[in-house]
Automatic annotation (TrEMBL):
All residue ranges annotated as the Epoxide hydrolase N-terminal domain in the record: 5-114
Keyword tags: Aromatic hydrocarbons catabolism, Hydrolase
Naturally occurring in which organism (per UniProt): Xylaria bambusicola
Protein name (database record): Epoxide hydrolase N-terminal domain-containing protein
Domain of life per record: Eukaryota
Length: 408
């Protein structure tokens, strides 16, 4: 049946594991300048250490077995104008009848793996007074174990269309969304089309909203000018601007490359596991708040990309599509995703994310009901500080009617 939901198990062939180890052992490493640390990218010593561990000590089978303890599924879904895709997702249904359906959407260089730390606490809270959630965590098409579209133009709106159809197939007529990175933009694209009829609330952990302008957001613009010229921005806002400037000046070259020449980049990342490791590990370090990555965590994280159904290149295609998107009735531009939506919004700000802007700027994108600044954490909030993200979601949502939101 076309709408069938099938149980799924991760099962990488032995030949694939041996091919990976052989490629790692035959790596030709570059040289490195003296005393540069990580200013020029992944340090040589880290790349060699992790590549050796990945080849000689890392146990994928143990990681695979652990992941397979979770409820994985696949189903075939189709965005209008595109071919049907086999989409992978984790679905943890709470035992609570009043649980709120929650769609968790990851980004790059993340995967469904990011959600694994929050599944239990969200679905089965220890305190009955806390809200419970049915959690759906899909792999983006082209990521992990989801099939990729072979047609150009599969942008944020098409991802959102597929995920909305997934929620309806699971019998969730009303639901909430949570996302950072691509999850931010995809859930915003969903909000344009499906809020407030289906999507009742969005929780976001990336400050990707527009700087206020006098024409579009006069009150917020005047508040910004007052802060800049009279009262001054807070220390938190100043540090956020500094972090955002660092990202634009020193950390965003990947975005331009993946958004313009994903095919060229794909040859190296598909052929060389160390190239893939270095490309992603740099972000795991730069975009987190001194998170103590273990070798096993890094190797599992990268292995999901290496063993992905569509291959490592496919994960970059979305950058190209969003960068080149033209506004149509089926496709949104970045600017449109920052416009007002009739939806309740929760915000979480983490000091080592890649974009950190004043929370009150975001009041131009929807009805902001929760705006939380945190003292620690970075881009991968669900992985770095799962308790904090869970706490924010619990604060935002009540355990009452499906999709209800608690307004602090």
């Amino acid at each position: 049946m076309a709408d069938e939901i099938k149980p799924f198990k991760i099962a990488i062939p032995d030949a694939g594991l041996e091919d990976l180890r052989e490629r790692l052992r035959r790596t030709r490493f570059p040289d490195e300048l003296e005393d540069v640390g990580n200013t020029m990218g992944t340090p040589l010593k880290d790349a060699k250490r992790l590549a050796t561990y990945w080849a000689e000590k890392y146990d994928w089978r143990a990681a695979e077995a652990k992941l397979n303890e979770l409820p994985h599924f696949t189903t075939v879904l189709q965005a209008e104008g595109f071919e049907p895709l086999d989409v992978h997702f984790i679905h943890v249904r709470s035992t609570r009848k009043d649980a709120i359906p929650l769609l968790f959407v990851h980004g790059w260089p993340g995967s469904f793996l990011e959600a694994t730390k929050i599944l239990g606490p969200l679905s089965e809270p220890s305190d009955a007074s806390q809200p419970a959630f049915h959690v759906v965590a899909p792999s983006l098409p082209g990521y992990g174990f989801s099939q990729a579209s072979r047609k150009p133009g599969f942008s944020a709106d098409q991802h959102g269309e597929v995920f909305h159809k997934l929620m309806l197939r699971l019998d969730y007529e009303e639901y909430a969304t949570q996302g950072g990175d691509w999850g931010f933009l995809i859930t915003r694209a969903m909000g344009r089309r499906y809020a407030p009829r289906y999507i009742k609330a969005q929780h976001l952990n990336l400050d990707h909203y527009p700087q206020p302008s006098l024409m579009r957001n006069p009150l917020t613009f005047l508040r910004t000018m007052f802060s800049a010229l009279v009262a001054g921005f807070s220390e938190r806002d100043k540090k956020g601007f500094e972090r955002s400037k660092w990202f634009r000046d020193e950390g965003s070259a990947y975005h331009m490359l993946q958004g313009t020449k994903p095919q060229t980049l794909g040859y190296g990342l598909t052929d060389s596991p160390v190239a893939l490791l270095a490309w992603i590990y740099e972000k795991l370090v730069d975009w987190t708040d001194e998170y103590p990555w273990t070798e096993d965590e890094v190797c599992t994280w990268i292995s999901i990309y290496w063993f992905s159904k569509a291959g490592p290149r496919a994960a970059h295609q979305l950058y190209y599509e969003v960068k080149h998107a033209k506004a149509t009735d089926r496709t949104s531009t970045i600017e449109q995703l920052g416009e007002w939506q009739d939806v309740k919004v929760g915000l979480a700000h983490f000091p080592k994310d890649v974009l950190i802007l004043p929370g009150w700027w975001a009041h131009v994108i929807g009805n902001v009901v929760l705006d939380k600044y945190h003292d620690k954490g970075g881009h991968f909030a669900a992985w770095e500080c799962p308790d904090v993200l869970v706490g924010d979601l619990r604060e935002m949502f009540t355990g009452g009617a499906k999709g209800a939101v608690k307004i602090p």
